[in-house]
Amino acid sequence: MRLLVFAASNSRQSINKQLITHAAYELKANNLPQAELVFLDLNDFEMPIYSIDRENADGIPHAARRFRETVADCDGILASFAEHNGSYTVAYKNIFDWASRLPDKVYQDKTFLVLSTSPGARGAASVLKTVVDSLPHFGARVAASLSIGSFGEAFNSSEGRLTRSDDIAALDEALAAFASALAPSTD
Known about the structure:
Blueprint: E1 2-8, H1 15-30, E2 36-40, H2 52-58, H3 62-72, E3 76-81, H4 90-99, E4 110-117, H5 125-134, E5 140-148, H6 151-154, E6 155-156, E7 161-162, H7 165-182
Parallel strand pairs: 1-2, 1-3, 3-4, 4-5
Antiparallel strand pairs: 6-7
C-alpha cells in the first residue's frame, strides 16, 4: 500500500509538514506497518500562475501531469493544509488549478486524511473546513480530519511529536479512521 504524504505549503520550515510527517510515521507504526510512505514537496511542482490564456498558449505544464501521476500511483493521501488569510496557500491552489484542467477528477477516488495546524488557537480551522467540504467534488473520500491549534504548544519540534494528550488521542482516532477506510472490504 502506497500512501502519498504532503503539506499544502511551500515553506521549507512548514509546521504543517512537521505535523503530517509525524502523523504518517504514527500511522505506519501503529496502524499500517506495511504502508510505503511517499513524501511529496510542493516546491517540486512549481509552475506559472494558472490562467486560461497561458493554458491556451502553452498547454498544461508537465509538473501538473506529474502531480496527477503521483496521485494515481497511491492508495491513499495524508495532507496537512496551511492557512493563508483563511484559505489555501497559493502554492497548493496553483498546483491544484493546473491539475484540475486534466481529464477526470484530480484526486481519482483516493481516501484522504486531512489535517491542519497554525500558531493560533483555531489551528487553521477555516481552511480545514474548506478542504473537507470541497475535496469530495474533486474525487476524494475524506475519511478523517483534524485541526491542531497553537502548534508551538502542541508540538515538540526537536522530538517531532505532539505533546498534549488530547491532541495525541484525537490524532490516534483520525489515523484509525483513515486506516479503516483504506482496509479492503471483507464482504
